[in-house]
Automatic annotation (TrEMBL):
SUPFAM superfamilies, per the entry: P-loop containing nucleoside triphosphate hydrolases, Prokaryotic type KH domain (KH-domain type II)
Keywords recorded for this protein, A-Z: Cell membrane, Cytoplasm, GTP-binding, Membrane, Nucleotide-binding, Ribosome biogenesis, RNA-binding, rRNA-binding
Record has GTP-binding as a keyword: yes
Protein name, per record: GTPase Era
Keyword RNA-binding (UniProt): yes
Cell compartment(s), UniProt: Cytoplasm; Cell membrane
GO-annotated molecular function: GTP binding; GTPase activity; ribosomal small subunit binding; small ribosomal subunit rRNA binding
Gene name for this UniProt entry: era
Amino acid sequence: MHKSGFVSIIGRPNVGKSTLLNHILKTKLVITSPTAQTTRNTVQGIYSDDEAQIIFLDTPGIHKPQDGLGSFMNATALSSMAGTDVILLIEAANEHIGKGDRFIIERLKREAECPVYLLLNKCDLLSKEEMMKKLTEWNQLYPFKEIIPISALKGINIDDLMNTLKKDLPEGGMIYPEEMITDHPEQFILSEFIREKILYFTHDEVPHDVAIVVEQWIEDEDSIDIMAQIIVDRPSQKGIIIGKQGSLIKKIRQQARKDMKRFSGKKVNLELFVKVEKDWRNKAKYLKEFGYNQDDYS
């Protein structure tokens, strides 16, 4: 009896949603960083084995939006709860339950029409007594179908999670070819590697003001030639990304190319340019042009 279905992964920023999906797929599909709101679009990751095919929706962290981009991210995350077979709410086990967590719980009470699992991530950071107390606190907030302590980074209890998930999925055949791990275009995945390296090298100086636009993509059997623009909000950010005598943008290009080559299996030639578009995160024209179009997720 083969199972197949859709599973939405939701939660606040930086609780380990993307790390979990990468671990399940055993590949780096989704970029990660210590910076909150790293994931901006809903990324679809496809897991297949002999028993089931599970389509995971990795969503942006649900937060209080400060601009148009933040509103887009929240809308895409919350809309992912509709039409899925299971919802995974990920929370950091070592953090207190706050207003943001209670906001998500209230949305689940109103909108969830399928089983909801609570995954308490970073379980290895708590003692057995601390974990029991945390389980009791969460049990009082919502009637979760399952509560599973996990470590997305170390893989603790991930096999148990997958086996339990399969029981709640409907019977069905493969929705996608077995070898497929995402329905996103390769161009999107590779452009995200550029943004990840900017997050890594610039820390809190630039990240939320950056978008990546692929201007040119030429591909043959052995190589991919990519020309991409890094969009920033202010001229000072352009200087930071370029670095002294072009040193930082060179590092960004070199490190992004490594991940691009690993993912695509091809030689990658990458050219990067930096462009200033003031206040682009609040302008519908630029949000749509840069790939943050709410209509794509409604």
